[in-house]
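Bench notes, afternoon.
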Amino acid sequence: MDYEKKLKELADSYGEWWNKGFPVPEMTDKLYPYSSMFEPIQVNKLKLKNRLVMAPMGNIDMCEETGRPNEKMLKYFEERARGGVGLITTGLIPVSFGIDKSLIELDDLTYFPRIDRSRTRFSAWRDLAGMCHAHGSAIFIQLTAGLGRVGNPQCLVNQFAFPRSASLNPNWYMKEVPCLPLTDRRIKKIIKNIGQGAADAKAANLDGVYLHGHEGYLMEQLTNRAFNRRKLGRFSNYENFGLDTIRMIRKRVGPDFPIMYRIDLSLLLNATYKGRMKNTKPLKKFRKERTAQQTLVYMKHLVEAGVDMFDVDLGCYDNWWLPHPPSSMPSGCFLDVSEIVKKYFKDNNVKSNKGLPVPVVAVGKLGYPDLAEKALRDGKCDMVMLGRPLLADADWCNKAYAGRVRDIRPCIGCQEGCLNEFVEGGHPQCAVNPRTAFEEEYPREIPLAKVKKKVAVIGAGPAGVTAAEVLAARGHSVDLYERQDRVGGNVAVGSAPVIKYEIKNYLKYLENRVETLEKEGKIKVFMNAAPSAEELKAKGYDVIITATGSRQVKPKIEGIDGENVVYAVDVLKNPALLDGAENIVVVGGGVVGAETAYFLAYEHGKKVSVIEMDKFIMNHTCTANRGHIIHYLEEKGVKLFNCTKLSKVEKDGVAVERNMHKNVPDPYNTWASILPENVINPMEKKIKPQFVKEKIKCDKVVLAMGVAPENALFYQLMNDNAAAEIYNLGDSFKGGKVFEAVRSAYRKAVSI
């Protein structure tokens, strides 16, 4: 097999994937009972009760400042064990403190849990193991060599120490900061530390060790030719770090302790960026990436050294949407990858040192029971890894086993809580499950209210439905009002593009919940209803909650009220508004504008341009979501104009002022990070005003210029003193994300 050709075809297919053989999955139970998912499997001497694995999602900022796991982390993992998953893997646990300076913040504090040789931390790990075992789940600790070039470069300012890597590599967050090569002595120290971490894990009664060897972290940097360009010494051979690490672990824990290894079959950088790899700094440094064939040989050698199982994906930080597939990527995106590995192992008779087949775990948006089951039945993998689906619904496994697929709360792929939250300084959470990582605060069973109240909830979007459901569980009398003819609010509009299939599944979930609650007599639902403040006051409610959503923003610009101007939300609801128009300009390059451009270019064959005032397209959007959309907009020929201001709408186009300064960023740059607003890059080149007036011709102008809270009803209710308690939640408080809406609604509702 020509692996590189196959993987290139796979990478190319991720733009218009719905026409490339990938399904558009739904939460169905056509293959129930799920005999393959819930079949036991043997790994070394460990028997797992089913073939479902919790991905390494979590634990950053779930520890004391010393690195000792805290109650939040313990309850978070116990919740997933209670939910029925066979194997839990922790998030990354570094072992290179003192070597990798990017792991430590000011005052020698850390946001990473630690296990490295300190008895002050051991008891928490023993507690965690006991909690998981009580529910029949095994747990592996994910040990990482360190962060290297993808670590926080602020160590240079805070500690006067350069970050370290395998070779002289640029830091991912600040390309201007070099990462100095690790010495052989320090590399050997990391290997020793990993061995000690594995021994500590075994002593703490954990069930196995899981090595973090993918995605461009330090272990990848040492075992991939893209990052390891050493010419001398033992570790100039890119396999030796990994093999020496496995041998050290086996030396410390013996032959019976399971070892799992996370690896990418390919970084896929050359297939992603093609010609840019030769002329784009710093990409050109990484052209000689480890090939898929070399990876397979390396995996064979790892098994010979003592590895018992693998999970396999694609990509790294520089094409971040691949190892973190966002909402716009297809489900089952890496099943071809796990199938390649399985076939190679079979053809080459690769077996573990225990004489067992080496399980290959599939990853990549497999949170649909029928899809996961089919992958196992078709032999594309031996186990299925679920990350975000288990954050969205900790009971995913138990519900699938019982055939309650309709009740599974689906992940929406936004990555705002699970990934972006810790980038911004928090711990992993979930946009649709407000209890995720708050299990220690909120019990599974919502407690009944001491005083039953009559409550009105206005708006049946995510905030309104969440509030109504929780309030009903508390025992209150709840009336839910929605001005449209269906629930969902802006979620309903946002589910229109095919790439938003996860939002569509979430919409169905909301509809199911409202339908069920109404049938059970727990809430009363009034559709096509927009009661006034006067009407609500007359009904004598004790509590009124407004969750009335947001309205579109239309700035005062000449020509913006013309017949050739429409809102993005209206286009998503009714694409026929653009019939007869071939050239479209989307004004606003935020997430709505960019996704609308994607929708128009790929699904409706329009020629699209996007203009954005900010220096970045899709700024303030999770890196993976941003990267996937922008990369494939470029592949489709969509023109992106950043640092560009709309000045006038004309009948045949738009007049703009465009900054042509040399330091304006490449709008298609997806290989570099956008730093959080509170982090300054002192070496960043300044953008000076150098505006040029231009005209972009088009047939239609689509506005995606943001939203403002629809809060008039709330303030009228307050003015009229319409109830003893009046609250404003979701987008009607602050226009934004499902994450914020659901979390605020849940917190408020459990307190009423």
